[in-house]
Design goal:
234 residues, mainly alpha, 60% helix, 2% strand, flat, disordered N terminus
Protein backbone atom coordinates (compact mmCIF):
# COMPACT_ATOMS: atom_id res chain seq x y z
CA UNK A 1 0.00 0.00 0.00
CA UNK A 2 1.32 3.46 -0.90
CA UNK A 3 1.92 5.84 1.96
CA UNK A 4 1.17 9.57 1.87
CA UNK A 5 4.89 10.16 1.39
CA UNK A 6 4.91 7.94 -1.72
CA UNK A 7 2.03 9.90 -3.25
CA UNK A 8 3.65 13.27 -2.54
CA UNK A 9 7.08 12.15 -3.73
CA UNK A 10 6.20 11.53 -7.40
CA UNK A 11 8.66 13.22 -9.77
CA UNK A 12 7.44 13.82 -13.35
CA UNK A 13 9.60 12.55 -16.24
CA UNK A 14 11.91 15.11 -17.86
CA UNK A 15 10.05 14.86 -21.19
CA UNK A 16 6.59 15.38 -19.66
CA UNK A 17 4.54 18.43 -20.64
CA UNK A 18 5.01 21.83 -19.06
CA UNK A 19 1.52 21.65 -17.57
CA UNK A 20 2.22 18.35 -15.80
CA UNK A 21 5.57 19.61 -14.49
CA UNK A 22 3.86 22.79 -13.25
CA UNK A 23 1.19 20.78 -11.42
CA UNK A 24 3.85 18.71 -9.72
CA UNK A 25 5.89 21.75 -8.71
CA UNK A 26 2.72 23.24 -7.20
CA UNK A 27 2.17 20.00 -5.31
CA UNK A 28 5.70 20.26 -3.90
CA UNK A 29 4.91 23.78 -2.72
CA UNK A 30 1.70 22.60 -1.08
CA UNK A 31 3.66 20.08 1.01
CA UNK A 32 5.08 22.99 2.95
CA UNK A 33 1.60 24.10 4.05
CA UNK A 34 1.02 21.04 6.22
CA UNK A 35 2.63 19.99 9.47
CA UNK A 36 1.47 16.81 11.21
CA UNK A 37 -1.66 16.81 9.09
CA UNK A 38 -2.52 20.42 9.99
CA UNK A 39 -2.91 23.25 7.47
CA UNK A 40 -0.49 25.98 8.58
CA UNK A 41 -1.64 28.97 6.51
CA UNK A 42 -4.57 29.72 8.82
CA UNK A 43 -4.49 30.10 12.57
CA UNK A 44 -7.30 27.55 13.09
CA UNK A 45 -5.65 24.98 10.84
CA UNK A 46 -8.54 24.69 8.37
CA UNK A 47 -7.98 24.80 4.61
CA UNK A 48 -8.48 28.14 2.84
CA UNK A 49 -8.70 28.54 -0.94
CA UNK A 50 -7.81 32.24 -0.62
CA UNK A 51 -4.70 31.63 1.47
CA UNK A 52 -3.61 28.82 -0.86
CA UNK A 53 -4.01 31.08 -3.90
CA UNK A 54 -2.01 33.87 -2.25
CA UNK A 55 0.73 31.40 -1.27
CA UNK A 56 0.97 30.10 -4.86
CA UNK A 57 0.98 33.64 -6.21
CA UNK A 58 3.78 34.66 -3.86
CA UNK A 59 5.07 38.17 -3.37
CA UNK A 60 4.31 40.16 -6.51
CA UNK A 61 5.76 43.59 -7.09
CA UNK A 62 3.08 45.88 -8.49
CA UNK A 63 3.97 47.27 -11.90
CA UNK A 64 3.76 51.05 -12.00
CA UNK A 65 2.73 50.82 -15.66
CA UNK A 66 -0.34 48.67 -14.92
CA UNK A 67 -2.62 51.71 -14.58
CA UNK A 68 -1.99 52.56 -18.24
CA UNK A 69 -3.43 49.21 -19.39
CA UNK A 70 -6.37 48.88 -16.98
CA UNK A 71 -8.25 52.02 -18.02
CA UNK A 72 -11.77 52.80 -19.17
CA UNK A 73 -10.43 54.05 -22.51
CA UNK A 74 -9.44 50.55 -23.65
CA UNK A 75 -12.04 47.87 -24.27
CA UNK A 76 -12.03 45.04 -21.69
CA UNK A 77 -10.87 42.46 -24.25
CA UNK A 78 -8.03 44.78 -25.29
CA UNK A 79 -6.95 45.27 -21.66
CA UNK A 80 -6.92 41.55 -20.94
CA UNK A 81 -4.85 40.48 -23.96
CA UNK A 82 -2.64 43.55 -23.64
CA UNK A 83 -1.90 42.73 -20.01
CA UNK A 84 -1.09 39.09 -20.81
CA UNK A 85 1.34 40.33 -23.46
CA UNK A 86 2.88 42.78 -20.98
CA UNK A 87 3.52 39.86 -18.63
CA UNK A 88 4.81 37.69 -21.50
CA UNK A 89 2.04 35.12 -20.98
CA UNK A 90 0.56 34.78 -24.48
CA UNK A 91 1.20 31.37 -26.02
CA UNK A 92 3.48 32.42 -28.85
CA UNK A 93 5.33 29.70 -30.75
CA UNK A 94 8.60 30.14 -28.90
CA UNK A 95 6.77 29.63 -25.59
CA UNK A 96 5.05 26.54 -26.97
CA UNK A 97 8.45 25.12 -27.91
CA UNK A 98 9.70 25.90 -24.40
CA UNK A 99 6.72 23.96 -23.02
CA UNK A 100 7.66 21.02 -25.27
CA UNK A 101 4.45 21.37 -27.27
CA UNK A 102 4.43 20.38 -30.92
CA UNK A 103 4.65 23.31 -33.34
CA UNK A 104 4.38 22.56 -37.05
CA UNK A 105 5.48 25.97 -38.34
CA UNK A 106 7.65 28.00 -35.98
CA UNK A 107 7.86 31.13 -38.14
CA UNK A 108 5.76 34.29 -37.90
CA UNK A 109 2.61 33.93 -40.00
CA UNK A 110 2.09 37.64 -40.60
CA UNK A 111 5.28 38.80 -42.32
CA UNK A 112 7.41 37.27 -45.05
CA UNK A 113 10.49 37.08 -42.84
CA UNK A 114 11.88 33.66 -41.95
CA UNK A 115 11.76 34.46 -38.23
CA UNK A 116 10.70 32.49 -35.16
CA UNK A 117 7.43 33.79 -33.78
CA UNK A 118 8.24 35.25 -30.37
CA UNK A 119 6.44 37.94 -28.41
CA UNK A 120 9.24 40.40 -29.15
CA UNK A 121 8.99 39.74 -32.88
CA UNK A 122 5.21 39.57 -33.11
CA UNK A 123 4.38 42.71 -31.13
CA UNK A 124 7.49 44.84 -31.66
CA UNK A 125 9.65 43.92 -34.65
CA UNK A 126 7.23 42.38 -37.16
CA UNK A 127 6.90 44.53 -40.30
CA UNK A 128 3.17 43.73 -40.45
CA UNK A 129 2.42 45.24 -37.05
CA UNK A 130 4.72 48.21 -37.64
CA UNK A 131 2.79 49.09 -40.80
CA UNK A 132 -0.40 49.11 -38.70
CA UNK A 133 1.24 51.21 -35.98
CA UNK A 134 2.49 53.72 -38.55
CA UNK A 135 -1.06 54.38 -39.74
CA UNK A 136 -2.29 54.75 -36.16
CA UNK A 137 0.57 57.11 -35.28
CA UNK A 138 -0.48 59.37 -38.14
CA UNK A 139 -4.06 59.28 -36.84
CA UNK A 140 -3.01 60.14 -33.27
CA UNK A 141 -0.30 62.59 -34.22
CA UNK A 142 1.98 60.89 -31.69
CA UNK A 143 4.75 58.30 -31.97
CA UNK A 144 6.00 55.96 -29.25
CA UNK A 145 9.24 54.07 -29.83
CA UNK A 146 8.56 50.34 -30.25
CA UNK A 147 11.46 48.86 -28.30
CA UNK A 148 9.35 46.43 -26.26
CA UNK A 149 5.91 46.39 -24.62
CA UNK A 150 7.10 47.27 -21.12
CA UNK A 151 9.54 49.80 -22.52
CA UNK A 152 6.75 51.44 -24.54
CA UNK A 153 4.57 51.67 -21.43
CA UNK A 154 7.46 53.08 -19.39
CA UNK A 155 8.15 55.68 -22.09
CA UNK A 156 4.53 56.82 -22.05
CA UNK A 157 4.59 56.85 -18.24
CA UNK A 158 7.58 59.24 -18.29
CA UNK A 159 5.95 61.67 -20.73
CA UNK A 160 4.78 65.00 -19.35
CA UNK A 161 1.27 64.41 -20.68
CA UNK A 162 -2.08 64.51 -18.96
CA UNK A 163 -3.14 61.07 -17.71
CA UNK A 164 -6.03 60.90 -20.19
CA UNK A 165 -3.70 61.42 -23.15
CA UNK A 166 -1.40 58.66 -21.88
CA UNK A 167 -4.39 56.31 -21.54
CA UNK A 168 -5.54 57.07 -25.10
CA UNK A 169 -2.07 56.46 -26.58
CA UNK A 170 -1.75 53.14 -24.73
CA UNK A 171 -5.33 52.11 -25.56
CA UNK A 172 -4.56 52.53 -29.27
CA UNK A 173 -0.88 51.77 -29.73
CA UNK A 174 -0.52 48.95 -27.24
CA UNK A 175 -3.78 47.41 -25.99
CA UNK A 176 -5.82 47.56 -29.21
CA UNK A 177 -2.86 46.81 -31.49
CA UNK A 178 -1.79 43.77 -29.47
CA UNK A 179 -5.33 42.43 -29.27
CA UNK A 180 -5.93 42.72 -33.01
CA UNK A 181 -2.51 41.40 -34.02
CA UNK A 182 -3.12 38.38 -31.80
CA UNK A 183 -6.58 37.95 -33.37
CA UNK A 184 -5.22 38.27 -36.93
CA UNK A 185 -2.43 35.82 -36.11
CA UNK A 186 -4.96 33.26 -34.83
CA UNK A 187 -7.23 33.74 -37.85
CA UNK A 188 -4.27 33.05 -40.13
CA UNK A 189 -3.17 29.94 -38.20
CA UNK A 190 -6.53 28.34 -37.43
CA UNK A 191 -8.67 29.52 -40.36
CA UNK A 192 -6.04 30.00 -43.05
CA UNK A 193 -7.42 33.46 -43.79
CA UNK A 194 -5.34 36.62 -44.24
CA UNK A 195 -6.73 39.84 -42.78
CA UNK A 196 -5.95 43.10 -44.55
CA UNK A 197 -3.94 45.71 -42.62
CA UNK A 198 -6.39 48.46 -43.57
CA UNK A 199 -9.22 46.40 -42.04
CA UNK A 200 -7.32 46.16 -38.75
CA UNK A 201 -6.57 49.90 -38.67
CA UNK A 202 -10.23 50.75 -39.37
CA UNK A 203 -11.47 48.39 -36.66
CA UNK A 204 -9.07 49.76 -34.06
CA UNK A 205 -10.12 53.33 -34.83
CA UNK A 206 -13.81 52.43 -34.60
CA UNK A 207 -13.46 50.61 -31.28
CA UNK A 208 -11.36 53.34 -29.67
CA UNK A 209 -13.73 56.06 -30.87
CA UNK A 210 -16.68 54.14 -29.38
CA UNK A 211 -14.98 54.08 -25.96
CA UNK A 212 -13.93 57.75 -26.09
CA UNK A 213 -17.45 58.78 -27.13
CA UNK A 214 -18.69 57.22 -23.88
CA UNK A 215 -16.08 59.12 -21.86
CA UNK A 216 -15.80 62.49 -23.60
CA UNK A 217 -18.07 64.24 -21.09
CA UNK A 218 -15.90 63.13 -18.16
CA UNK A 219 -13.72 65.71 -16.37
CA UNK A 220 -10.58 63.87 -17.42
CA UNK A 221 -11.54 63.92 -21.09
CA UNK A 222 -12.60 67.57 -20.93
CA UNK A 223 -9.04 68.53 -20.04
CA UNK A 224 -7.95 67.13 -23.40
CA UNK A 225 -10.80 68.27 -25.62
CA UNK A 226 -8.50 68.86 -28.62
CA UNK A 227 -7.24 65.26 -28.54
CA UNK A 228 -10.77 63.92 -28.20
CA UNK A 229 -11.93 66.12 -31.11
CA UNK A 230 -8.98 65.05 -33.24
CA UNK A 231 -9.62 61.35 -32.67
CA UNK A 232 -13.39 61.32 -32.94
CA UNK A 233 -13.50 63.58 -36.00
CA UNK A 234 -10.80 61.88 -38.09
Amino acid sequence: MKTDHDIWAHTPPIDSSWYWRKLNSTKELMKEWYSQGRYTLTSEGSYSITQSYLAILGQQQKMKIADLIWTAVAQPKHRFIGWLATLGRLLTKDRMIGMQLQVEDINCNLCNEDTLESQDHLFVKCSWINAVRQELNLWLGQTVQTTGIKQMLEEVKRKHWKQFKKEVIVAVNIAAVIYHIWRVRNVKIFQGRTVNKAEVVTQIKREVIEMIDLLKQSKKAQKYRNLVRQITCN
